[in-house]
Write a structure and sequence with these properties.
4 helices
Length: 92
């Protein structure tokens, strides 16, 4: 059996990223999940300072408040936002 990933769009789950940022964010696990290993290593190196923990909680809050579209535009490179439907009455 042969598996091919060519043309497959991999979307990152915002809920998983938020949970990883809250519980393991100081170790950079959310960054590794989002395919940002360089940033993840930075978090690991400085985890003893507690600064990465604060940054991770801030990121989790931003992702929670801004919604799916914001998250996928930043972390899913092949994401195409669904087009908004126009109001046939012209907004009245």
């Amino acid at each position: 059996m042969h598996f091919s990933n060519i043309g497959e769009v991999i979307m990152k789950n915002r809920s998983i990223a938020i949970l990883l940022a809250i519980f393991l964010g100081g170790l950079g696990m959310h960054r590794f999940y989002l395919d940002r290993p360089g940033q993840g290593i930075f978090y690991l190196i400085f985890c003893w300072t507690l600064v990465p923990w604060a940054i991770a909680l801030f990121e989790a809050f931003i992702w929670l408040v801004n919604g799916e579209k914001y998250f996928h535009e930043r972390y899913s490179p092949d994401y195409i936002a669904p087009e908004e439907e126009e109001d046939p009455d012209g907004g009245c």
